[in-house]
Recover the amino acids of this structure.
């Protein structure tokens, strides 16, 4: 590991090393600037926000105003409903399919698996146009169900499931079979508890994808009361023509990203590990 | 039929039953739309015709004559060519630092990785604010700077934002790549009197090659899919200076209602993504990720 190599060099604290470290700390701080600036602007009144160096006591005025100006509570509700119903369906479906691909030897396995893999490359974002016209046929335009339906089958989820189930000793399953345990009960009682890390990893990826999804809900949803947060935020932000309303837009942006940021601060390690899996997509 | 084949058919039946629910959604919302795009791309289907009319390859033949399509295509290439190497360079530096640093480990990871989890719409809002003349952060350099407003600079302003959004994501792959390198190699290098720079050049970087190939593929496909920021920041303008393929598909499909043309562009995008996948299949040592 790199660590140990460092400790060898750590003995001599060279001038070069100090410069590199100082530079990287500074770089990390600069990387945070956009976010810090949005947070700062969200908490001060707009007349003071214009001057970069003016600071004042934080105020919730901006949040109060925007909460009344646009139905953010409804947007929140919509996003949460969409995120969790997608997750619920995905968890069931990927467990079933993941088990089949990991444990069963059947005709058409490779072809079927390859078909699922196409979804990792050609994601729903690319297919907005044909999916929209199909949703028209199904009568699901301007329905929340229509927004989440294309995500019920997840190739990434099935893939992660398959990989993890393969690492679980087969003896566990055989022991259960001898005890007369049937497949549904075996999946729930033996596999599901062992697969918790996959649910967490996949859940974080899938939830943040749904939370952040924008272009697809933009084309699908017309009614104000069905908008998810991203769409609500975009339309709210674009209703301002001048730069003078930036405190409001900053507050609204912060309102939308706050849950994600909080989750990320708490589960930092899990987030980073989950996203490392998501690269397969 | 012997018993083994009979048993396999029984397993097949069970397996298909388990996969069927997923497969239905895959078929309806991935496979069928792909087939449908190919089919629709052979028809003239827009506001000027009453019913879709078969025109063969004409939608495809017209695309090279469409200057906006060419512009979007080139813009996608510019974005890919500019963001990928820069993101990789930054990500390697970040990963080396994040793996080594002792003081403020969590801070550095949060600092570098947080843009990844932000919605593109929120990131776009933040950077639109930064780029706003008179009010934005950029105005402290020069209040009259209109980076997004002029066609010469708008694409570059977006590229900077995309690098900011993406580098932390790339970093996590290099972090695990670095952790998988055998520590004895570094120790041997230090014993041989190799300095940090030559260790990186002759040991670390070559051993990170699988990660680099893999990350290039992922970011390349992402470069064709990420368009949310355009809706907020530029709408593809000024002119079409910042338009991209997927955003242009959206405009042609939903603003101009030219379904046939949008379908033909969707097919081009699909083909490009498939080509990238096939290239990945041959270039990458598959054991690295598919074991």
């Amino acid at each position: 590991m790199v660590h140990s190599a460092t400790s060898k060099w750590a003995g001599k604290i060279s001038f070069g090393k100090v410069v590199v470290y100082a530079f990287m700390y500074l770089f990390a701080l600069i990387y945070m600037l956009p976010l810090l600036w949005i947070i700062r602007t969200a908490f001060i009144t707009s007349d003071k926000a214009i001057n970069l160096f003016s600071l004042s006591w934080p105020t919730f005025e901006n949040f109060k105003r925007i909460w009344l100006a646009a139905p953010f509570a409804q947007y929140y509700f919509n996003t949460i409903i969409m995120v969790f119903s997608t997750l619920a369906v995905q968890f069931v479906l990927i467990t079933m399919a993941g088990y089949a691909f990991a444990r069963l030897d059947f005709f058409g396995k490779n072809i079927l698996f390859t078909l699922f893999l196409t979804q990792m490359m050609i994601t729903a974002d690319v297919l907005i146009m044909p999916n929209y016209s199909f949703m028209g046929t199904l009568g699901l335009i301007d329905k929340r169900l229509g927004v989440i339906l294309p995500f019920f089958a997840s190739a990434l989820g099935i893939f992660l499931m398959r990989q993890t189930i393969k690492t679980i000793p087969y003896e566990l399953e055989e022991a259960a079979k001898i005890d007369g345990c049937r497949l549904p009960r075996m999946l729930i009682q033996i596999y599901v508890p062992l697969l918790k890390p996959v649910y967490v990893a996949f859940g974080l990826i899938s939830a943040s994808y749904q939370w952040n999804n924008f272009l697809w809900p933009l084309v699908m949803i017309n009614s104000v009361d069905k908008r998810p947060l991203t769409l609500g935020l975009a339309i709210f932000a674009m209703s301002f023509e001048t730069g003078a309303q930036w405190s409001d837009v900053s507050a609204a942006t912060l309102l939308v990203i706050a849950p994600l940021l909080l989750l990320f601060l708490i589960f930092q390690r899990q987030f980073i590990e989950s996203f490392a899996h998501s690269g397969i997509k | 039929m012997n018993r083994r084949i009979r048993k396999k058919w029984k397993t097949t039946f069970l397996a298909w039953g388990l996969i069927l629910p997923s497969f239905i959604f895959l078929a309806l919302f991935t496979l069928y739309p792909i087939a449908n795009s190919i089919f629709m791309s052979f028809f003239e289907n827009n506001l000027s015709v009453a019913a879709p009319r078969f025109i063969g390859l004409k939608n495809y033949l017209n695309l090279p004559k469409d200057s906006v399509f060419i512009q979007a295509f080139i813009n996608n290439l510019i974005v890919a060519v500019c963001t990928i190497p820069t993101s990789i360079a930054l990500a390697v530096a970040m990963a080396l630092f994040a793996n080594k640093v002792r003081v403020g480990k969590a801070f550095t990871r949060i600092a570098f990785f947080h843009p990844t989890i932000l919605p593109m719409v929120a990131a776009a809002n933040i950077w639109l604010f930064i780029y706003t003349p008179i009010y934005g952060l950029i105005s402290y350099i020069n209040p009259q700077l209109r980076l997004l407003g002029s066609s010469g600079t708008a694409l570059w302003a977006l590229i900077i934002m995309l690098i900011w959004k993406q580098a932390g994501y790339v970093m996590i792959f290099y972090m695990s790549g670095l952790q998988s390198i055998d520590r004895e190699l570094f120790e041997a290098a230090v014993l041989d009197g190799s300095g940090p720079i030559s260790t990186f050049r002759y040991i670390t970087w070559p051993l990170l090659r699988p990660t680099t190939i893999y990350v290039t593929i992922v970011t390349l496909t992402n470069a064709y899919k990420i368009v949310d920021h355009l809706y907020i920041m530029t709408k593809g303008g000024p002119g079409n200076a910042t338009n991209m393929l997927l955003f242009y598909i959206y405009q042609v499909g939903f603003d101009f209602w030219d379904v046939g043309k949008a379908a033909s562009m969707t097919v081009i995008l699909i083909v490009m993504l498939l080509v990238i996948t096939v290239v990945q299949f041959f270039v990458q040592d598959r054991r690295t990720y598919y074991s």
In short: Chain B has two domains: 3-40, 64-290. The two ends of chain B are 34 Å apart (CA to CA). Residues 287-291 of chain B have pLDDT under 50 and may be disordered.
